[in-house]
Amino acid sequence: MGTNDNFILAIESSCDETSASVIVDGKVLNNIVATQSVHEKYGGVVPELASRAHQENLIPVVQEAVLSAGITLDQLSAVAFTRGPGLMGSLLVGVSFAKALAFARNIPLIEVNHMQAHILAHFIDDPKPNFPFICLTVSGGHTQLVLVKDFLDMEVIGETQDDAVGEAFDKTAKLLGLPYPGGPLIDKYAKDGNPKAFKFPVTRMAGLNYSFSGIKTAVLYFLRDQLKENPKFIEENLEDLCASIQWTLIEMLQIKLKEAVKRYGVKEVAIAGGVSANSGLRNTLNELAITKGWNLYIPKFEYCTDNAGMIAMAAHYKYLAREFSTYDVTPLAKMKI
Length: 337
Hints:
By secondary structure, the chain is of the alpha/beta class. It contains nine helices and eleven strands. The chain has helices at residues 47-68, 88-105, 114-120, 165-175, 183-190, 213-229, 233-264, 279-292, 308-320, and strands at residues 7-12, 17-24, 27-28, 32-35, 76-84, 109-113, 133-138, 143-150, 153-159, 268-272, 295-297. β7 and β8 (143-150) form a beta hairpin. α1 runs parallel beside α2 (88-105), α3 packs across α9 (308-320) and α5 packs across α7. The longest helix has 32 residues, at 233-264. It is globular, with a radius of gyration of 21 Å.
């Protein structure tokens, strides 16, 4: 690494992962993540506990990122951070730290949209998609279809009108008595189940939009009726229930994705966000790509969930475009692409 290299420190604190990453001229050097186990006993993320954990984890995570990159804070060219969307308390910790560090070093400050960063995670490693491409972003808080025209030029062409698909996974998992986070457990048990064992409604919205609130209600009433007849119904049918729920959610996702690809005439397709780690979704889209002639792109697992590596990559392109923030920038719980 030369003396003229541009080192950017990126910070991610939108929900319950505290993460830091250093990128140099478009190459991500590391991706340090501290997870929070405190939420498991509550069955979901507790915002106040999340923000407190970020305060404890942020400095050690940043120190490790800088140390493992082999640089000092004096060598930083800019500091990047997640401005939103996310939990306000969690975002505030990351934003405040980034602002203070950038101000103290008199270097540029770069705000990053968390959802844009999920999409730009595809440019961390090869193979990389060609523009334009359609990205299905799927997470616990968002489900969107995005037409990506360039690194910083994106258009949301469809999105959920209620629950995100990741939320639907976790809520139905809770109905099955599975611990939080339940989405990965549904994926695990579904591998040994029959996806056609039980039929749940596939909600269809106008245009390219989604709705996932209905499946939670459908599963709730279905389980209620079955448990009246057999109190051990869930226990005896857990794998088939998980497989059937997962199949239904994936079916809803892929129907709209196929419509989007057809409407925009794009063969470059990507998925991003935490739910893109789901093996059932990956397998389904890989099969679709073969039959439809798509070029499909899926990030490595470490770049699917919330991480600072993707924030760093987004910051790299904003740095090149000289899109810097002022020191009075504040976090945004809701933030559009």
